[in-house]
Description:
By secondary structure, the chain is α/β, with parallel strands linked by helices. The protein has nine helices and nine strands.
Amino acid sequence: MVELQVVLPDESASMPPERLVELAVAAEDLGYGTAWLPDHLLPPGEFGSTYGGVYEPLVTIGYLAARTSRIRFGTSVLVLPMRSPYVVAKQAATLHRLSGERVVLGIGAGWATAEFAAVGAVFEERGRRTDESLGIIRDLFEGRDRGGVFEPKLRAPLPLMIGGTTGPALRRAARYGDEWQGLGLDGAGFAAAVSRLRSFGDRPIKVGTRLDWSSGDPDPVVASAHELVDAGAETLAVSFGDERTALDRMTKFRELFTAA
């Protein structure tokens, strides 16, 4: 059975922090399995539909996990080459332990050239740095020696989700990922991306994608969701747009999807 997920609207600097709590609690009560948070450190434009992540996602997960009990939380996606992999691994392992093992670490290489320049990271090296960092994080999570003592050790697996549909992203998912998340795909595009991902290795990977319903009639989005399930999607993460109407959309989508 497909797992429905929600992308929380961390896009408005004027949004009260309690709104994220309200939406996370509602998602848990409605039966959504995972709530995702976006990431941008220093975007070249205002936060909004293009740049999400007003509240830093890993810090926010700690806050939301303390107010919920069952729903998983993840990053979709954390721009890893802008950060130290040792710090990210420590943060994620800590959150996993404190939340009762409810964290998914979603990783991407990033795409905003100006943002890389703003934080002093080299855009052209992002692919190599992402792969190297994932190798370090894997080693730390699986107890391999990296020259020091890593704690807290994982009591339960902490899944790595790799996002993206490019060739490098799919290769990265095949090598390092426990989960993969696409974006902007129809059923045929999703099936083709999964086939390409599987061609790069035989590790078991949970596959899914993201949808957007931020305006308009929900019926085409619900139809697209079922098309993706028929194409093999095991998870569907939906972004519901503006935080002021997200709860109504989240509730309506769940009802329509399960009734169809």
